[in-house]
């Protein structure tokens, strides 16, 4: 992960115990906006009919949707050079131009060739990679001792975004594909601009035994599960019953309140501050590197720790220092030769070049490549699968797909964090298991590989 020279870099570190939780609450909205790639089944049939495409052409558009969503190497590299707000701004621009072009084509405002629409869809869905990278990397730096839990929450909200868009599509947009494309083109940039100030590097908490922080994470996880269950129930009710306009607006308002639930944590910390414990000054300062993921100055910055256990904060550092001292003494006596520089070991921070020569990186890459393929194949053809079995409205299928995807991500993050802290098991194993439920972009894979 990114490190750097102390506090120098393109982003300033916000001190205090509340800003990380404000950033997490803001990241929820960023991740919900980042789920644009999941709503392809909602407007794919309209694109097919409006532009006269056959199934083969529509399938190739689905490939463009997948390429844009999953190619996250560029935002992953730039996340170590640019501040989060700029990453979000670039993602917003991608959504505006990409989905705006599709909206112009579907409404027949402009006539465009097929290859232009393919590229536009790639650019539009690539916004999810930019938004997800900014939200995920920043919050994992702000909560270095709870990386698994944070990753599960952040990736879980982008999965439940499919259900959020489905509820909005049914209740507020009148099942109009053109209105949905317009929402993607204008709504995503608006949401990101409103919250980009709060998604920022903060002074991380290093208190492993902080019961209050664990309770906060538990509350956030429970509220996300309640949101997922509520969206699934609301979608089913809206599809099976004839709801009035007032009830529809009420259901939509409850969804907005549930999305705002994580904001209750910093509000509670403001109204009821904990006066018994004073915040300890932290030397763990997230910053940005211009050369590598780990940065040139490891003595002043360690943005992401290798594990959520305190051994990596104190015990491991002491043992490493004693081991290094023994090696230096042995070298002075001529017993060993340390002329060749040692590379980073498992659990350390890796540069991108160092990760490329590690077997762990390529193992995770292969598992991700094979596991995600099944999910995106089903997602791209979800509308056609539903219509093949006689279902004219496939919103319930998409909502169910998003909920199961969300459940896998939340459980994967929480369970892996538990086994890392209690059993000292590698989190990558559980990540590989729940990746088969459906993954997202490449930067997250690079994060776990280190």
Write up what this structure looks like:
- This protein has helices spanning 19-33, 40-51, 55-70, 73-78, 84-106, 114-142, 147-171, 177-195, 211-240, 245-259, 264-271, 315-332, 352-356, 359-380, 382-388, 395-423, 427-435, 442-449.
- The model is unreliable at 1-10, 277-317 and 427-450 (pLDDT under 50).
- α1 (19-33) packs antiparallel against α8 (177-195), α2 (40-51) packs across α8 and α3 runs parallel beside α6.
- It has 18 helices and no strands.
- It is globular.
- Helix content is 66%, strand content 0%.
- The chain has 450 residues and is mostly helical.
Q: Secondary-structure element order, as H and E?
A: HHHHHHHHHHHHHHHHHH
Q: Which regions contain 5 or more consecutive residues with pLDDT less than 50?
A: 1-10, 277-317, 427-450
Shape: globular
Would you report the number of β strands? 0
In angstroms, what is the radius of gyration? 23 Å
Helical content class:
55-70%
User: Beta-strand level of the residues, as a percent range?
Assistant: under 5%
What is the averaged pLDDT score?
A: 74
Q: The biggest beta sheet, please?
A: none
- What kind of oligomer do you see? single chain
First-residue to last-residue Cα separation: 8 Å
Number of helices: 18
């Amino acid at each position: 992960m990114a490190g750097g020279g102390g506090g120098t870099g393109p982003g300033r570190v916000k001190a205090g115990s509340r800003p990380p939780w404000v950033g997490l609450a803001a990241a929820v909205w960023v991740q919900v906006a980042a789920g644009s790639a999941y709503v392809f089944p909602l407007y794919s049939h309209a694109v097919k009919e409006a532009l006269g495409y056959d199934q083969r052409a529509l399938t190739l558009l689905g490939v463009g949707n997948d390429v844009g969503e999953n190619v996250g190497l560029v935002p992953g590299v730039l996340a170590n050079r640019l501040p989060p707000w700029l990453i979000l701004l670039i993602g917003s621009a991608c959504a505006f131009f990409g989905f705006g072009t599709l909206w112009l084509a579907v409404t027949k405002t402009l006539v465009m060739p097929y290859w232009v629409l393919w590229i536009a869809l790639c650019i539009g869905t690539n916004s999810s990679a930019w938004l997800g990278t900014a939200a995920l990397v920043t919050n994992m730096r702000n909560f270095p001792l709870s990386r698994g839990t944070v990753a599960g929450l952040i990736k879980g909200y982008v999965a439940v975004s499919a259900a959020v868009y489905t509820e909005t599509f049914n209740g507020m947009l009148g099942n109009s594909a053109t209105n949905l494309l317009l929402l993607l083109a204008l709504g995503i940039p608006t949401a990101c601009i409103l919250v980009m100030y709060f998604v920022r590097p903060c002074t991380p908490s290093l208190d492993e035994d902080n019961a209050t922080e664990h309770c906060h994470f538990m509350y956030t996880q429970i509220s996300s599960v309640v949101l997922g269950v509520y969206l699934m129930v609301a979608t089913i009710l809206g599809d099976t019953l004839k709801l009035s306009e007032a009830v529809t607006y009420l259901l939509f308002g409850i969804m907005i309140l549930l999305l705002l639930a994580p904001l209750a944590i910093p509000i509670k910390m403001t109204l009821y501050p904990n006066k018994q414990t004073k915040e300890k000054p932290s030397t763990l300062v997230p910053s940005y590197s211009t050369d590598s993921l780990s940065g040139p100055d490891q003595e002043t910055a360690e943005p992401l720790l290798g594990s959520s256990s305190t051994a990596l904060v104190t015990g491991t550092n002491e043992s490493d220092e004693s081991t290094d001292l023994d090696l230096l003494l042995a070298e002075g006596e001529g017993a060993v030769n340390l002329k060749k520089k040692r590379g980073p070991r498992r659990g350390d921070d890796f540069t991108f070049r160092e990760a490329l020569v590690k077997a762990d990186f390529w193992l995770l890459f292969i598992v991700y490549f094979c596991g995600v393929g099944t999910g995106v194949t089903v997602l791209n053809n979800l509308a056609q699968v539903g219509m093949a079995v006689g279902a004219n409205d496939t919103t319930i299928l998409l909502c169910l797909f998003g909920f199961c995807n969300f459940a896998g991500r939340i459980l994967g993050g929480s369970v892996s964090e538990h086994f890392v802290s209690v059993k000292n098991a590698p989190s990558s194993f559980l990540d590989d298991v729940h990746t088969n439920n459906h993954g997202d972009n490449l930067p997250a894979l690079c994060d776990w590989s280190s």
